[in-house]
Amino acid sequence: MNASVTLLPPTLTIGDMALRWVTPTDIPFLRELYRDVRAPELAVTGWPQPMKNAFCDSQFDMQDRHYRMYYPDAVFYLIERAGVPVGRLYLSNTPQRLDLVEVSLTSQQRGNGRGAALLQWMTECADATQRPMVLHVEPANPARRLYERFGFAVQQSLEDAQEMRLTMFRPAQARPQQGT
Question: Which has more confidence, 64 or 73?
Fold first, then answer.
């Protein structure tokens, strides 16, 4: 395994998406994105919208602190289309592996190939340095089918009253040598 890590650039373009490192001015959008992602599960609570917003804000803050503490090597990208924020992509980039920490797109941006384009780029980065990839996903998350198409398989299942998630693993794919 290659012990070096490819440094992830502060900006890049993938298809029609521009990615750039998150800045403090992006926090209001990231909070709204978190609310958008959690909206379907909170719709059944019967809570008024201000209560849902407060809940999501507190959960977002805890998640952000957790990610920054647990993944010190992470790169936090904001995803934009035509200069408008549409998502986030968080990657932990270590010599041992590339972890997909978080990928979220607004509800309007889901289901149109953008997630696949992002995953294609990530797997190419991992394969170029011969590193496996790891991600965590809830069993019912529709994105699980996309991950499986890219070679991820369930490595561990954690299903208890507190948490339901699958750890999915993708080994580094052999890349042909130049000139062969």
Answer: 64
Give 133's strand partners. 98, 170
Tell which residue, 81, 27, 85, 80, has the closest CA to residue 57.
27
Q: How far is residue 71 from each of residues 27, 91, 102, 138, 144, measured CA to CA in Å?
A: 19, 9, 11, 19, 22
Residue 94: φ, ψ to 5°: -115, 165
User: How far from each other are the two terminal CA atoms of the chain, in whole angstroms?
Assistant: 20
For residue 161, name the pLDDT band (cuts at 50, 70, 90).
very low
Count helices and strands in the chain by DSSP H and E runs = 4, 8
pLDDT tens for each residue of 118-144: 999 999 999 998 999 999 888 888 888
Give per-residue pLDDT as tens, 85-101: 999 999 999 999 999 99
Which long-range contacts link 81-85 to residues 24+ away (Cβ below 8 Å)? 81/16, 81/17, 81/18, 81/109, 82/16, 83/18, 85/26, 85/29, 85/33
Cβ atoms within 10 A of the Cβ of 52, count? 17
Q: At what angle do helices 49-70 and 27-42 cross, to 10 degrees?
A: 120
Q: What is the pLDDT of residue 167?
A: 81
